[in-house]
Amino acid sequence: MSDTLSSTELWDKVSFALYQDLGAISFDTFVDPLTPVGIENNRFIFKVPETFADKIINQWNTEISMKFVEYANNETGKFIRPEFQKTESLASAASPVTTGLTSESEQHIPFSQDAGLNPDYTFEKFVVGSGNENARAIAQAVAEGPGKVYNPYLIYGGVGLGKTHLMQAIGNQYAQDNPNARIKYATAEDFLNDFTNSLRKGGDTNATALFKKTYRSLDMLLVDDIQFWAGKPQVQEEFFNTFNALTKANKQIVMTSDRYPNDIPDLQDRLKSRFEQGITSDIQKPDVQTRVAILRNLQDQNDLDIPNDVLQLIGESVDDNVRTLEGAFHKFEAKIRYMNKPATIETAKTILEEINANKKSVITVDRIQKVVADYYMQTVEDMKSSRRQSDIVMARHVAIYLTRTMTDMSLPQIGQAFGDRDHSSISHAFTKIEEQVEKEGQMKAMVQDLAEAIRNGQ
Question: Best label site of 58, 211, 345, 443, fewest CB within 10 Å?
Answer without folding.
Answer: 58
